[in-house]
Amino acid sequence: MSTLKVNTILNASGGNDVTNLGSWKKLSTTTITSNVSDVTFTNSITDAFDTYKMYAIVFSQLQPTNDNVELRMRIQEGGSTDTGNNYRFRVFSPDGNETTQNADKLRLNKDPLGNDTSGSAILGDTNGIIYMTGFMANRIWRYYGFHMFLNDSADKNFDTFGGGVNGTNATTGVLIYPENGSWASGSVTLYGIAQ
């Protein structure tokens, strides 16, 4: 017989509905019901980027409007999106790797995302997690994550990725977007992770 030890339960309600167990705190969710160019989280959200040392973005059923696109990310400093050549990323894929220094954005996939559908079935979307740290001033913002997706050849795929930004300014926001077109559907949630 096994024993389960629980140190802390922060919030629980009746039935099968249990929330906020462990150290993850949901800070904000964006649910996409019509086309949007990006999903952005900023430090205007309570506890975002100034309370925890680690944050995570969880994205689910994120579908681009266009086929054959890169999944991209950028940060904001002082409320403005950094579009300079300040990024370093690595993508590890079963089909080959991608690494770039001094890029103007972060790329999160090697094979391009697809957006295939079949009748009412959505086949081409992506689901994954991005872990991030180093938001405060005098630290280097870094990230690591993975996602599962259907590529533009309708092949089931997954990639892991990581990297960061060149500089030690405070990071005040993060945005995730497709290379071109928009997000057609899906949800993206920002979490703070306590230690």
Name the features.
five-stranded antiparallel β-sheet; mainly beta; eight-stranded antiparallel β-sheet; single chain; 54% strand; 195 residues
Task: Describe, in plain words, how this protein is organized in 3D.
The protein is mostly beta strands and 195 residues long. 0% of the residues lie in helices and 54% in strands. The chain has strands spanning 9-12, 18-21, 24-32, 39-42, 54-64, 71-77, 80-81, 87-93, 96-103, 106-107, 117-118, 121-122, 126-133, 142-150, 156-165, 173-178, 183-193. The strands form four sheets. The protein has an eight-stranded antiparallel sheet, with no helix packed on it. Strands 4, 6, 7, 10 and 16 form a five-stranded antiparallel sheet that branches. Strand 14 (142-150) and strand 15 form a beta hairpin.
